[in-house]
Design brief:
Layout: H1 7-21, H2 25-45, H3 47-82
């Protein structure tokens, strides 16, 4: 009774969407739908949490390096001014 969705049905659905939203809005809707599906898949697999944790660790490492660089030049300048 309920067969698969074929090409004629897809064309009909696309035509109705085109009439409802217009040609300019359809790509934006498709992009939003794709991003939503991608986000859903990544949340199921837990990939995004791992990436966030990696970014936090890298940011902390970079911050530590910057602080070391800021401390070292000022120490060298003090040594030169005292000598």
């Amino acid at each position: 009774m309920f067969g698969g969705i074929g090409i004629p049905e897809l064309l009909l659905i696309f035509g109705i969407l085109l009439l409802l939203f217009g040609a300019r809005k359809l790509p934006e809707i498709g992009k939003g739908l794709g991003e939503g599906i991608r986000s859903f898949k990544s949340s199921l697999s837990g990939e995004e949490e791992e990436k966030k944790e990696e970014k936090v660790v890298k940011a902390k490492e970079i911050e530590a390096e910057v602080k070391k660089e800021e401390v070292q030049p000022s120490a060298k300048v003090e040594e030169k001014t005292q000598a």
